[in-house]
Amino acid sequence: MVRGVTLTALALGWMVSVAGAGGAEAPLRARVEGVVGTVEMRPAKGEPWRPVEVGTILPPGADLRTGFRARCVLDLVDSLVQVDPLSVVRLAELERRGQEVRTRLHLKQGNAQAIVEKGKIESDFAILTPSATLSVRGTRGIKCRFFSDEGGTYGLADKGLIAVIDGLTGREAACRPGQSTNDRATKASEHLANRYMPITLDHAGQEKKEKEATRRRRSGLAVAPGLAGSKTIGNRRVQQNRCEQSLLDGVISINNYNVPTVPKQ
Known about the structure:
It is built from four helices and 18 strands. With 265 residues, it is of the alpha+beta class.
């Protein structure tokens, strides 16, 4: 049963309220604006989970999870966030710093979509996953997906700009409308090519990564035992000639055993 409205339906009214927000200092809380299906929250780690309904308040540090075919829309003061089915998120930070609202949402698994608008309230908004950070620079249509077995995908469907930072290397990639990247902060154009373009092989039947490995081997780097193959083309020709001669003699050697072959009639 639907007990609220969706992210799109809430966006217009929310942006009007953000534009007219005053500067009164008050503790910030997230408010549930829409619920579909089974959604639960807990105020802090270790506390029991309890059902969520429209109007439920989430303090910083609270966890939220959605069930199968469930979703939830959160009003985070500077943003609207929709948490999609089978997702687990934590509201890590939500606080006002002068004229700026700092929001940090930890996506442990699942999908989340967000709208962040910079009006009179300055926004410092980011979604963090176990392997990357998505930082927002005044934008809409943010899409974030993370599952431990397949990694993360981050994209932008509407206007604006986002930046994705690899949590391991610190590499950063920017995404504009219609673009996406992954945990390794691969350039948007390269990420698109890797997902949808056919594999390009050269005349020797090698793709790009195989060619790079070949260059490294020829540069003098050591090759793992068993991967070096025959040293020269000449050696392979000698082996081939010996095999052909064995077939003509009627005997072929397999694992040091001589096996008679069927003579030609």
